[in-house]
Amino acid sequence: MIISTICFYLFSLVAVASGVMVISARNPVHSVLFLILAFFNAAGLFVLLGAEFLAMILVVVYVGAVAVLFLFVVMMLDINFVELRHGALQYLPIGALVGCVLLAELVLVAGFWVAGPTLSAAATAPTPALAQLSNTQAIGALIYTRYFYAFQAAGVVLLIAMIGAIVLTLRSREGVRRQRSSQQINRLRSDTVEVVRVKIGEGV
Question: For 152, which of 8, 33, 122, 159 is 20 to 30 Å away at the CA?
Answer without folding.
Answer: 122
